[in-house]
Amino acid sequence: MEILKKRILEEGIVVSDQVLKLDGLLNHQVDPELTMEMGREFARLFADQGVTRVVTVESSGIAVAFATACELKVPLVFARRKKTLLADPDALCERVPSFTKGIVTDIMISRQFISPEDKILFIDDIIANGDAARGLIKIIHRSGAELVGLGVVVEKCFEAGARTIREQGVRLESLVKIKSLAGGRIEFEQ
Ligand code: 5GP
């Protein structure tokens, strides 16, 4: 997605050879027009898959997942990161390490919002090592639902997450692929 590449070049801040700060677009502020454009692209890529629900992990995936769900005209379910007193005791949970926070968090989805009849499109913001995505994929599999694919806004190709998930047989589509952040320079994969 060329417009997204342009915005990443203009607004992304390379924090280290591994980390790209995208607060202006994804992780702090949301540009509604650009986000709806991303949602349209994911909806186009998975249009023929009979998606019944879009699923993401709170919080940065929610805006783009909402845009995708809006376009596909299906509900959006976001996995919650903490167990709350109001949570369903029978919820599906996984423990995942957090790339940016350096801590382990629990993600959960209530069985009420994911069922064996569902065809799930999983949307996320950025994929690095793939821990968060693998955790949510396990939840989807345990629910009995079918995972039709995973759409990520930014794939960091120099980290193993996307590759290992594709090797699991999951269809993974990314809007932008970043090959390297070395030397403070954002290099896209062609
Ligand atoms: P993973 O579990 O794939 O290692 O990391 C996934 C999550 O960590 C993403 O959903 C994203 O929120 C965060 N993350 C990973 N790499 C980056 C990065 O380079 N920049 C930012 N802003 N977040 C990242």
UniProtKB/TrEMBL annotation:
Domain Phosphoribosyltransferase as annotated: residue spans: 48-156
Subcellular location: Cytoplasm
Known catalytic reactions: XMP + diphosphate = xanthine + 5-phospho-alpha-D-ribose 1-diphosphate
Chief location bin: cytoplasm
Single GO molecular function: xanthine phosphoribosyltransferase activity
Keywords: Cytoplasm, Glycosyltransferase, Purine salvage, Transferase
EC number(s) on file: 2.4.2.22
Pathway membership: Purine metabolism; XMP biosynthesis via salvage pathway; XMP from xanthine: step 1/1
Positions contributing to 5-phospho-alpha-D-ribose 1-diphosphate binding: 128-132
Alphabetized CDD domains for the sequence: PRTases_typeI (cd06223)
Pfam families according to UniProt: Pribosyltran
Chain residues that bind xanthine: 20, 27, 156
Function text: Converts the preformed base xanthine, a product of nucleic acid breakdown, to xanthosine 5'-monophosphate (XMP), so it can be reused for RNA or DNA synthesis.
NCBIfam families: PRK09219.1, XPRTase
Subunit structure: Homodimer.
Family to which this protein belongs: Belongs to the purine/pyrimidine phosphoribosyltransferase family. Xpt subfamily.
Protein name: Xanthine phosphoribosyltransferase
The species this protein was found in: Paenibacillus forsythiae
Gene name linked to the record: xpt
